[in-house]
């Protein structure tokens, strides 16, 4: 396969999109369109885009853009182990952690399917032994709690998924998370724990993450100070790290599971980074179902027809909204309290991947790349920032996520409808209101409409659905990166802050840094 | 006092700002500037704006804009009970709940100081009796848990403040919150509770909020189904509502506390809406200290000199960034895990207040009003979307919040520094990196800098500091609303969604609404 990596503004279809008249949602929106403007995302997840500012003319050009930018071909090359992460000169292999591949891929002499499956099996075996009480705490008590110590990609995704699924199936072990170097975070979490029955999962690919190592030392210190007879702190720790990291060499841990350099933190939820804590907390069966949903979505994303590939279409409409309609934000609103922290994960996934100003060759691009992402669950957000979405001077497209059934089978009727029905009545009411609006002579009560919306929907938030939602957004972000011709898989923008923080800690400050430090330290 | 309410684009100073050359942070930033560009926010809270794209010329014009738009005079009129909320024809009296006033204000024949102080005293008396075990659950057991049932302004502010202060002082009662009409929210919270020892606080000003009444019925139902001998469900409920609401008339509640129509939900944290749960959970002394901090910030906000009024200056710089520099987002980043939910509260406060397209007279404005607000705590956010802030094509100003001491006095040293020092080293490193940047021939490792930052800092996140931070932002939002000549105190944009949701529930749908409903219900 031979592909060309070219900037968005070289695309003929993109140029035509810039010249094509913008369409009006309120003129287009109809029962027929709501039925037709729908694309599968895999695993029962469906993307409805009837509320977007697109029509058949624009969709044809978006299909042309996808073909011209060879998005599916580039996805296939990524799957096959091309060095897509040009900045760090690495492969991009997160799909392989859920068994999605076209051919075998070998990295540094290692068959990567064997590597990922092998680590997964080690984790599953370990988790089962913990659950069966074959593996106990150092004072002989069974574990009832697991705490992830990690930050960024080692925290946001696993945490969001744990919260999303803990009401689906009662956790086997209760999970907690320590991420922030703020000592109040660790102290707060530790205050409620019984060290004898708690297992810690230390996650750091490099084995050098400042916050994570500090927090580990913090925990170890507290365990020692607790002065519990027979307690061996490190025997309450497993590590998830790369095989070459300093952590991996330390045999004092209860166990170690390995990750590799071909997966960035924000794409690591389906690797051992998510797999270890999720298998311990929810069970290997639940994690396996989560992976199967992600794999289904990955397969769907291979389709070159935008009407049969939700991730691809979602990506292209996002580019259209950003680069043609000049909309620089997207709100992600799950109508599901269980998904309360998923927008925070997506914020990282999308903004860290596509918040770039140079293309994959290191040349500055002359167009806008990634948008800002934020969100809170509905209906809560209706009582918060939806005023802004309906009536502000800036337009924010909304990506709704909804489920036909609640997770916990204990709903009740009040005034003729269940809570679940009220929830979804609000969801569809918001989609309609944002698109169609309502004229009013009192301009303060007028709704212009023309606020773009889309809906990812499924029957229920199951492990499979959660996997598919995660993979949908991972693939959307990837396709957008290809469309903009940027590298979505490095993060050089985080380096300068680290460097300067170390200068403060090592007392090597220039005047400006010193003056700021004098305010705070 | 006679004031003129005029649109921003009529202002001479604003026109001059549009013509004034933009200044470069990296050229201006110096040790001297960091010391000088600092304004008091009251109660020990200080606003540092050395990292903003302003110089003395621009600041002089911003002072001129403040004077021209009569911002302090309008604040005084608001304090004195003018009908500032023109849409709903109401006063705006949240300052009075913390004792901030210039003169007595009478609303509907009632002296409002007496009203707010009276309800506060009722709450304090009630809370003390609960704490002293003079008031018990209906089966004779003392209360150990309090649950707020409310949404939007009845949820986000009180929840954020509870989380912010629960590590400062061990809670007297543990607090939980049920907001979402999603049944998984209530079921999840209720699953961990002992009904006999739980007190619920039902908060709805109108007494008709769909989600809140549904959730109350949900809770009552679960309590009845629990079949606990002697349990009288409504005797585990207090209500916080307006004196004229249907709830207020019901004498079956354990107690009722009143709020009034002169305070919107998002400004109600210092009223009985926040006061009831916070006094029960944290104690009246803590809530009283919180109010005193807010009052100090309110007093500081009376100063007409922008260098001595942080809320005013923060507001004006925000307008400059939005309307001159064309920056439409602001990230709010507390370097404090305890403040993890404060950005969500601020998102509501700011976006619901200033996400408007018409001025206070109902005429459409021709300029941009409120910005989008989002945020997560540092250092977590460094490992998430800070890549975007450093290197994306869109620029997002960052409002940092930091404290010199952690809340919990149990920090530890590792590799020569405490966790708290590492936290703040990162904070000042980020401020420096965003402003100054770093040139690199490899454009992928290049940092342009010129990302505006500001810092609100204090010694510690105490009740007083939390009150001052809350009031700072409430006053900032108010001053921005005055500057844009909009009404920051109504929210007509939430009405259409409510109307359409009821149409779904009452089966009165048009084709579009029905087709969306068919997807989800």
From TrEMBL, chains A, B:
CDD domains in the cross-refs: SIS_PGI_1, SIS_PGI_2
Catalytic reactions on record: alpha-D-glucose 6-phosphate = beta-D-fructose 6-phosphate
Enzymatic class: isomerase
Domain of life of the native organism: Bacteria
Protein name: Glucose-6-phosphate isomerase
Residues annotated as catalytic: 352, 383, 498
GO molecular function: carbohydrate derivative binding; glucose-6-phosphate isomerase activity; monosaccharide binding
Pfam families: PGI
Protein family membership: Belongs to the GPI family.
Native source organism of the sequence: Thiospirochaeta perfilievii
GO BP field: gluconeogenesis; glucose 6-phosphate metabolic process; glycolytic process
Subcellular locations according to the entry: Cytoplasm
Pathway info: Carbohydrate degradation; glycolysis; D-glyceraldehyde 3-phosphate and glycerone phosphate from D-glucose: step 2/4; Carbohydrate biosynthesis; gluconeogenesis
Keywords per UniProt: Cytoplasm, Gluconeogenesis, Glycolysis, Isomerase
A GO cellular component annotation in the UniProt record: cytosol
Main location group: cytoplasm
Documented EC number(s): 5.3.1.9
């Amino acid at each position: 396969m031979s592909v060309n990596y070219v900037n968005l503004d070289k695309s003929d279809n993109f140029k035509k999109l810039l010249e094509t008249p913008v369409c009006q949602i309120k003129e287009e929106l109809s029962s027929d369109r709501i039925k037709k403007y729908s694309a599968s995302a895999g695993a029962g997840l469906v993307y409805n885009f009837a509320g977007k500012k697109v029509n058949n003319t624009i969709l044809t050009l978006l299909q042309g853009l996808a073909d011209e930018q060879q998005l599916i071909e580039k996805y296939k090359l990524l799957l096959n182990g091309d060095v897509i992460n040009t900045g760090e000169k690495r492969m991009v292999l997160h799909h392989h952690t859920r068994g999605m591949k076209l051919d075998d891929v070998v990295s540094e002499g290692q068959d990567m399917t064997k590597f990922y499956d092998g680590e997964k099996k080690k984790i599953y075996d370990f988790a089962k032994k913990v659950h069966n009480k074959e593996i106990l705490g150092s004072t002989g008590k069974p574990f009832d709690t697991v705490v992830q110590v990690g930050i960024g990609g080692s925290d946001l995704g696993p945490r969001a998924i744990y919260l999303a699924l803990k009401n689906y199936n009662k956790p086997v072990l209760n999970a907690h998370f320590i991420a922030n170097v703020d000592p109040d975070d660790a102290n707060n979490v530790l205050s409620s724990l019984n060290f004898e029955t708690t297992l810690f999962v230390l996650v750091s690919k490099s084995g050098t993450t400042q916050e994570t190592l500090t927090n580990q030392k913090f925990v170890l210190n507290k365990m020692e100070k607790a002065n519990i007879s027979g307690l061996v702190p490190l025997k309450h720790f497993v590590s998830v790290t790369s095989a070459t990291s300093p952590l991996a060499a330390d045999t004092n841990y209860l166990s170690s599971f390995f990750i590799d350099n071909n997966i960035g933190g924000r794409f690591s939820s389906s690797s051992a980074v998510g797999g270890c804590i999720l298998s311990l907390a929810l069970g290997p069966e639940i994690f396996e179902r989560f992976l199967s949903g992600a794999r289904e979505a990955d397969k769907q994303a291979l389709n070159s027809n935008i009407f049969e590939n939700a991730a691809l279409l979602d990506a292209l409409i996002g580019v259209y909204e950003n680069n043609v309609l000049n909309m620089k934000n997207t709100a992600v609103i799950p109508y599901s309290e269980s998904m309360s922290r998923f927008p925070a994960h997506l914020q990282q996934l999308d903004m860290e991947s596509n918040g770039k100003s140079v293309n994959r060759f290191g040349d500055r691009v002359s167009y806008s790349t990634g948008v800002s992402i934020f969100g809170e669950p509905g209906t809560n957000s209706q009582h918060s920032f939806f005023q802004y979405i309906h009536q502000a001077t800036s337009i924010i497209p909304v990506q709704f996520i909804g489920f036909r059934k609640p997770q916990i089978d204990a709903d009740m009727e009040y005034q003729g409808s269940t809570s679940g029905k009220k929830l979804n009545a609000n969801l569809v009411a918001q989609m309609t209101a944002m698109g169609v609006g309502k004229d009013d002579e009192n301009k303060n009560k007028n709704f212009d409409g023309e606020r773009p919306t889309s809906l990812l929907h499924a029957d229920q938030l199951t492990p499979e659905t959660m996997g598919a939602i995660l993979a949908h957004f991972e693939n959307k972000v990837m396709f957008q990166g290809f469309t903009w011709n940027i590298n979505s898989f490095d993060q050089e923008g985080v380096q300068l802050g680290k460097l300067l923080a170390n200068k403060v800690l090592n007392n090597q400050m220039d005047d400006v840094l010193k003056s700021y430090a004098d305010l705070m330290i």
